[in-house]
Write a structure and sequence with these properties.
Oligomer: single chain
Structural class: mainly alpha
Order of helices and strands: EHHEHHHEHHHHH
Radius of gyration: 21 Å
Strand order of the largest sheet: 2-1-3
Helix content: over 70%
Strand content: under 5%
Number of helices: 10
Shape: globular
Largest sheet: 3 strands, mixed
Distance between the termini: 62 Å
Length: about 300
Amino acid sequence: MGNNSVDIYFNLTMFVDIGLYRYVAFVFFLLLYTFIILSNILLILVICRERNLHQPMYMLVACLSFNELYGSAGFFPRFLVDLLSDSHLISYTSCYAQIYFIYTYASSEVTILSIMAYDRYIAVCQPLHYRTKMTAGRVLGLVGLAQIHSFCIVTLCMGMSSRLPLCGNEIQKIYCAIWNIVKLSCIPTVANNIVGLLVTITAAFLPLFFVLYTYLRILIICWGRSADFKGKAFQQCLPHIVSFVIFSIAVFCDISLSRLNVEEINPIAAAVLALEFVVIPPLLNPLIYGMKLLEIRRRIRKILDLKLTNL
């Protein structure tokens, strides 16, 4: 099988035939996508509009919400079309475009969460140096480096996988994934496996260890402090901890699913595990930060009250 982008169509085989229930599923996921768009846009607008929220922590929340919109745009439109379609073929070009969107989203997500952990560490452990170490310029610079890092590692992996001669076209997934394409290769993929392992370590495990290290330091600092100090630190860190745990579980499920034989798993369970990675973080993050961060919650309530008053 050649690698001509005109000739190759991949078949996404994880879609389950649910008959007329697919229309119910379509409406459900359309509403879900609409909520993701509206909630994340609301969070971004509130942070941009309110001058009191032009602080590093809230800027990072806005960046995270923008990344949720970006990742959702790379998944939901195609997924909604597939729900109503009898055929789940996707062209070579569209498949790699989807890979680029979803993988850069995931890489940026974990990097932004790591920057947020560093921000919380400085705020709790070095409060006197917070204004000098966490400036708006530094935050934007770190986020910019995160985007460059995501672009480089995803482009590298896509470039290596696109050169492989393929002996099949079935991708056991709801969306395109590099590892599933590599498994279709007609030749040994030792180099791809090594690079994939290194990328996984640098893009997933190192940020995980960094976040765990920062919260270990925060825990040590809080250990001998007053109950009031512990309460304030916990209130500041809780939204980020919940967000990071949710994303880590989603990534773990996605990686595990890619390594397992999908045919031996219940198709509904496999579909849920596949969807968790691209649905749950964009859905829950605006709720977590909008409800748990007091200043954002106040501003949202103020805006909604003004809208209701003007009606």
